[in-house]
Amino acid sequence: MYGKAFAPEYQGALTTLSVNSSLTDVLAAGAEQLRAAEEAGEHGEAARSGLAVAEAHRRLGQVREADRAWKASYRAARDAGDLAAMAWALWSGGTLARQRGAFPLARRLLGLAAELGEHGGDIVVRGYSLAGLAETGRIQGDYQAVARLHEQLLAEARRRGEARHTVWALEGIAQIHRNSGSHDTAFALFEEAAEIAAGAEDRRGHAWALRGLADIVSVRDGDTERALALLSEAEETCRAMKLSGALAYNHKMRGNVLYRAGRYPEARALYEQALAEFRAMREPRGEALSRLGLAKSLARLGRDRAETAAELDDLAGVLERIGLRHAREMVSRAQVELGVETPGDTSSGTVGHAAAAGATR
């Protein structure tokens, strides 16, 4: 039913690159082709090779370089009068904005990308841009608004037999179910995503699916060792492909699993590692969630209650500022769990820290 996964963001002379190509290899090939296109005055090719450069930088956590690259790709596409290439550049910029926690900008750029993709006759970039909008809403916790869009995109991907996008949609829907407490449904969806990704040789999608399965196995079954084994398998792919962001989220999830098992010193070490990784790539969402896990671990290890309370209060403000829904509920649950509630703070929410900390890529 599904063919081999491919990477539509690798375009022009770079279509021979695999979805599983190491990002350092993608960056080297893209930069070389970009230089050649610029020297030849080929704006269209410069736009498409520049897109690969932007995406490699983004996935490597090199934010400033990625920002420069997608903007240069857009300018080259505009000079070439190529609407589809302009749309791809905007998609890259919108994805980077979401990664940086700039959600309003992400929605604006991704919306423009979807419109240009439609006008330019490129259904793939239109679909990817709509998927980006759906993922942005999901990450913020606006499940009602984006659940239907996730389902629509899943149906379209299945109809086209597009494995990579089917895997993405399944994982997004699974995450919504997981955060809503439907663990069995989430597990089945993650399991299907893992099977499709493996069959299509989509190693990145497979790694994310394994991470989702590890989360469910930990929170639902309490099977710590199986969860850690799944994360170790996923980590091998992250390291082989140089997936810096995915690796940081893998480490954060490992912290979650260890925390749930009461292995607080180990959890603290993993949260500290993830925090350093997120800070290095200027990823505020992952940084805040790692701080939350670290604060809980330190509290369990005897940290002063006043320091814990101050840390959680600060985190509440940070999470709200970057636009993550249920931020107050996440912190409130941590305050209740640790016995450091502030006067008048009685909100409980529907999504706890364990759910929310595992909710994002």
TrEMBL record:
<keyword id="KW-0802">TPR repeat</keyword>
<protein>
    <submittedName>
        <fullName>Tetratricopeptide repeat protein</fullName>
    </submittedName>
</protein>
<keyword id="KW-0677">Repeat</keyword>
<feature type="region of interest" description="Disordered">
    <location>
        <begin position="340"/>
        <end position="361"/>
    </location>
</feature>
<dbReference type="InterPro" id="IPR013105">
    <property type="entry name" value="TPR_2"/>
</dbReference>
<dbReference type="Pfam" id="PF07719">
    <property type="entry name" value="TPR_2"/>
</dbReference>
<dbReference type="Pfam" id="PF13424">
    <property type="entry name" value="TPR_12"/>
</dbReference>
<feature type="compositionally biased region" description="Low complexity">
    <location>
        <begin position="346"/>
        <end position="361"/>
    </location>
</feature>
<dbReference type="InterPro" id="IPR011990">
    <property type="entry name" value="TPR-like_helical_dom_sf"/>
</dbReference>
